UniProtKB/TrEMBL annotation:
Transmembrane segments: none annotated. SMART domains: CH (SM00033). It comes from Linnemannia gamsii. Gene3D superfamilies: Calponin-like domain. Residues 174-196 are annotated as: Disordered. Residues 23-127 form the Calponin-homology (CH) domain. InterPro entries: Calponin-like, CH_dom, CH_dom_sf, SM22_calponin. The gene is MP20. This is Muscle-specific protein 20. Residues 186-196 have a biased composition (Gly residues).
Amino acid sequence: MSGPRKYGIDREIAAKLAAKYDVGREVEAREWIETVIDEKFPSADFQASLKDGVILCKLMNVLIPGFVKVKASKMPFIQMENIAKFLQGCEKLGCPKHDLFQTIDLYENKNPGQVVDAIFSLSRHAAKAGVDIPILGPKLADKHEVEFSEEVLNAGKHIINTFQYGYSGGANQSGVRNGRREIGGIDPGRGGPVEA
């Protein structure tokens, strides 16, 4: 994470984000993008290659044909617009907002881990939406609805579930005399229980 020197809480946040960054996941995401768009990255630096948004727009056009016009430019607002269009495409494919990154996270390299996480999420949601691509990470679960017949529901009303009563396996009455619990134990001087 390059840029101006950070102090105080900004430095702590930057250190936490850098510690969470996984280069292995970055390599997986890079290989996945290269496979899907059938094109190599222009440089070895993952974030720098994605910064102008061109590769991301090409990726989105493979996933949703004709979704965005690819604009290669050195102007920052065009590059940020490309990134924003990619994020819109991710949402259209069903990626939740919390899985995505902010444009500034990629453009200013503020949160590179979130960029990689968004690409993993995109692969899963695009596959679930029916795009024929490999998946990064675990496959999304399908919803499984169960319907019970009226007979089964009625039978369940008459069963007492003893598991909801709590655990009493370790409780017993040892140490209790005359209704009072003996806490002090045995008095070594007298040989008997400690008097309260």
